[in-house]
Design goal:
The chain has about 300 residues and is α+β, with helices and mostly antiparallel strands. The protein folds into 2 domains: about 1-35 and about 190-280, Gyrase A, domain 2; about 40-185, RNA Polymerase Alpha Subunit, Chain A, domain 2 (Beta Complex). It is built from 6 helices and 13 strands. It has helices spanning about 25-35, 70-80, 210, 235-245, 255-260, 285-310; strands at about 1-5, 15-20, 40-50, 50-55, 60-65, 115-120, 130-135, 140, 160-165, 165-175, 190-200, 230-235, 265-280. The strands form 4 sheets. The chain has a 5-stranded antiparallel beta sheet. A 4-stranded antiparallel beta sheet has the order 3-10-6-8, with helices on one face. A two-stranded antiparallel ribbon has the order 4-5. Helix 1 packs across helix 6. The chain is flat. The structure holds zinc ion.
């Protein structure tokens, strides 16, 4: 199996990888590994402060720990916030942490296996013109290593609204986990692959039915005969764009008879285009490499088990 990043990727958190000399079942194992096995950080426990606070500085204004959303929903929303995962920081899974796995359930959790965030936000004061305040991911204060600070692009994620007289206060604990245990630990979404094709220009005259539509590729080039060299086009991104464009002249468009399969897509055996997008907790390259690592370790484990079973 050979893997290479498709030109122009990664785009932000999106990734496309060309996989060659592979079987679909192997590529699918990689897909499953990315969704279920690659570990990442997510908030998994929240301790809310409940009660009534009196503000001594501001005419004794009273704030109460109520707001528009139930605590469970807030905890769920916190779990979905991408927590920067630093594979090199040596974070341990809570159930495997050497420093605290012997402790009672309530005492578990130490700097090696969890990251702490605190939040303490009040709604607008009584004399404010603002009817409410939005609590955002950026309001979370990281009380652990600064490498786990919520990244700038995620800080605007809304968590809830607070009206006058309301406050929200909690401590949240992020831990390392795997997507197979809960979707909040899934490192990437939209993990898909498709066979790789090569486009062939068979009937240049009839292909004008497509070329005259004035379509462009995703990077802005005109879809016309210039995309083909010696009647072939094999650039991965361009072929994907052509595949989309061909829907405009396919069955049911009324153009298919004139077009008469002037351009065909030929499948390249053993070659796949693999794509996914991370939530921002991990870089897409890291996710792919970690998935390969997970598969390697699993198959070598299997190899040892087999040896033992046969011996
Ligand atoms: Zn621990």
């Amino acid at each position: 199996m050979k893997a290479s990043v498709v030109d122009g990727y990664p785009k932000g958190n999106k990734m496309k990888i060309l996989i060659e000399d592979a079987e679909a079942s192997h590529v699918n194992a990689l897909r499953r590994a990315i969704m279920a096995d690659v570990p990442k950080m997510a908030i998994s426990k929240v301790m809310f402060t409940l009660g009534v606070n009196e503000d001594n500085n501001n005419r004794g204004e009273v704030y109460e720990s109520v707001n528009a959303l139930p605590d469970e929903v807030i905890a769920h929303r916190l779990a979905m916030i991408p927590i920067p995962t630093q594979p090199d920081e040596g974070m341990a899974f809570p159930e495997e942490c050497e420093d605290c796995h012997d402790l009672a359930e309530d005492d578990k959790g130490c700097p090696r296996c969890q990251v702490l965030y605190s939040l303490n936000v009040r709604g607008p004061s009584a004399d404010s013109d603002e009817p409410y305040r939005v609590v955002r991911a950026g309001d979370l204060t990281n009380v652990s290593d600064p490498v786990f600070d919520i990244s700038e692009e995620m800080q605007s994620i809304p968590i809830t609204y607070l009206a006058q007289g309301q406050f929200l206060e909690f401590i949240a604990f992020a831990t390392l986990g795997r997507g197979r245990d809960h979707a909040k630990w899934s490192a990437a979404s939209a993990v898909t692959f498709q066979p790789r094709y090569e486009a062939e220009l068979k009937k240049p005259k009839k292909a004008s039915v497509l070329f005259d539509l004035g379509l462009t590729t995703s990077d802005g080039r005109a879809i016309d005969a210039k995309l083909f060299t010696s009647k072939k086009c094999s650039d991965v991104s361009t072929v994907l764009d052509l595949e989309k464009a061909l829907h405009q002249v396919g069955h049911g468009t009324g153009r298919d008879a004139d077009f008469d399969e002037a351009i065909v897509l030929n499948k390249i055996d053993g070659s796949y285009v693999f794509s996914f997008e991370t939530d921002g907790s991990l870089a897409p390259e890291a996710v792919f490499n970690m998935a390969i690592g997970e598969l390697k370790s699993r198959f070598s484990d299997l190899g040892e088990d087999l040896d033992r079973a046969i011996a």
